[in-house]
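Case study: Translation initiation factor IF-2.
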Amino acid sequence: MSQQTTIRKLAELVNTPVEKLLEQLAEAGMSFSGPDQVVTSMEKVKLLGFLKRSHGKADTATDDVAPKKITLARRKVQEVTVAAGRTKTTVNVEVRQKRTYVKPTDAESVSTNWQNEADPERAEILRKLEESRQRNLDEQKRLAQEDARRAEELERRRQEEAAVRAEAEAARLQAEAEAAALAAGAAPVDADETPRPAKPAPGHHVPKPPVRKDPPRVDDRNAAANKHKTRGSHAMVAGVEDDDSTSRFAGQLHLSAADRARRGASRGKPKPKRHLEQSRGGGGAHGFERPTAPVVREVAIGETITVADLAQKLALKGGDVVKALFKMGVMATITQTIDHDTAALITEELGHKPVRADADDVESELLAHTEEVQGDKVARPPVVTIMGHVDHGKTSLLDYIRRTKIASGEAGGITQHIGAYHVETPKGVISFLDTPGHAAFTAMRARGARLTDIVVLVVAADDGVMPQTREAIQHARAAKVPLIVAVNKIDKSDADPLRVKNELLAEEVVAEDFGGDTQMVEISAKTGQGVDDLLDAISIQAEVLELKAVEDGRATGVVIESSLDKGRGPVATVLVQQGTLKKGDYLVCGVQYGRVRALFDETGNQPPSAGPSIPVQVLGLSGVPEAGDDFVVVEDERLAKDVAQQRDAKRRESRLVQSAGSRMEDIMAQLGKGEGQLSLNLIVKADVQGSVEALRHSLTALSNDAIRINIINSGVGGITESDANSAVTSKATVIGFNVRADASARRIIEANGVDLRYFSIIYDVIDQVKQVASGLLGVEIREEIIGIAEVRDVFRSSKFGAVAGCMVVEGVVKRNKPIRVLRDSTVVFEGELESLRRFKENVDEVRNGTECGIGVKAYNDVKPGDQIECFERIEVQRTL
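Here is what the predicted structure looks like once written out:
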């Protein structure tokens, strides 16, 4: 409060009526006439003391208003000139000091009060401290006495052992001296002719007249004690001095033989000197001993290891390991990675024992999750894979069973993906996998055969057994699954089912009609004839197999197909084999992981869960998994992430091993090649993972001595800016299989003149690359995009169906040219226009920036936001 506080203001501050405050001041001995008078600080302190006394509290020194603590602050500013070369700089230096002074009486009173209040407790603490200190002193005295007693005992034993050794040595020396005297026939020997019991030190000269600096030794026992007390290098010095006989015997003129022997035994012998030399040489308990045999180590080696790590485990220099690798024909530097087999051979070559390292702690934890789910097994639907040669009617058969039309919307009328469906038939639920029949999709067919319970082999009655039919039979045998043959197209006039059965006999597939065990059903996918018999055959075979799985528990299964959707991200089609897959589960797919955000079936619905043998699409993964990878549902995201990262690191190390450590034979074999060999660099992007795999294997297989097909990069999804930059750098041709380049990628491709080609049929891709590789240039058929129209809205008409209201954003849209419907840069339909109108008039073409109405023939699923791409096929003569 300020010094000008009035009674009225003080009453407001302490929340007391003015009249009551005046009464309290009057009772305290201070009279005020009105509420506007000023109250000083001293008067306030007096009032506070009065109120404390009236409430029964101890009264502090209220009269003493002097401050109990004084704080002095000092601030000092100086200027300092600092010379920096030719220039000078002035710096302001400010020094602040603060000191606080406290009244000694206050500190003493506080200390006294504390001591008075805590006197009993403090006395108890001091008593306990004194007792503890006394116990420690007693214990230390006892330990010191025991140490002294042990030292005395040890010294006594040493003296006794020294006396025994001295007596034995004296007796031996006396016997030797007597024998020598008898042999020489001489008189007793004087002290100067006494033979030395110990060998003189090297470089020892004839003793000089005695000049003793040390006091003379009176008792030999004291000399023995001093010998034992001497440590380190002093033992050697004492030994040299004791060898000097003149100085030792300076005080005595005559010695008997026994005295000479006893004194010689009590002198510093070379024995402690030898002991010292042994300890210096490392022969003691902690000294270094040279190994008598080579050290054989057990070296733990993982799947891959760098040369430097291997050298460290072998306790060798890195150069020695590299030298051993070169001797074995492997060219690798110290930083490169080698595989387990090479590292094991090098370890054995260098004389050590290799041991496989099991560092898969995360995989072991995952293995505990993937063990067979405990629970009751229930019957599950069969998984049936449809296989056969291309264009034999596999998808048409499935369309009839599912009452849908898939084959009509496929490019070229052929299947180029694995289709997964589950169908509720009168015979029960059956899951179907539709595999491609083209020769390039061998990996897809093999993957489908491994996942299935039953293989249905579709053979056209008018075409017979073809190469992919034989391949499908081999895949089914390799997977050890039963085979059912469906002879299709029996409604055609030139159908010959008997010919098919006879040709299958050559492949060791014997029909039941011929006494075999293979069911053969004659069907027509177009009319539906025999389809019910085929379903009956599948149901009978499933009952024989007794298919069961655990329904309750964490789900496990296999990735059938995967793709990258622009709007939904990575999408994986999985087949659940055990347990139930639910929304929100954490799962691991190969090197990818994530949480299930949504589940979709083949019709686009979102089921809450998927049980055994049910295929679904999964959203929420961190990336696009490889087709054929196993997926496992785990407890939490941490385990899923750790497993995925460890697998990714192993895969990366494997790639490094493949690219490193070239053998000398391979390098010598390649020295003469490559001079006249051409290289064709390709970047392949497709809509699904299976197509990427098939294209990569098919195109690289076209390489020959004249040209080498090099796949620079491959992936799933549209052509991005990164792909375009990679193509510019490597001068590669970009192949888009059912995908398109985005705007930024197109700008880079057009600016740098990159060769970009779109395909929708795998025949065209392989044929064009094969023609270039084989040197058969011929005529090239190119697809040139002439216009793109963007769908703004869709109008339904009972007369025309779905009519798309569009705006032409690029080029020209012509009515007589083929078109494709793109959704999120992915082809969803290919066909032709049914109508092209401008207002109410039919027009032949619509140019850029103009609105129009477009009717797509045989396709009514056009949605706002789609793009209708108009193109034309032109023939271009290839030139060298």
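For the exam, be able to explain this: DSSP finds 25 helices and 37 strands in the chain.
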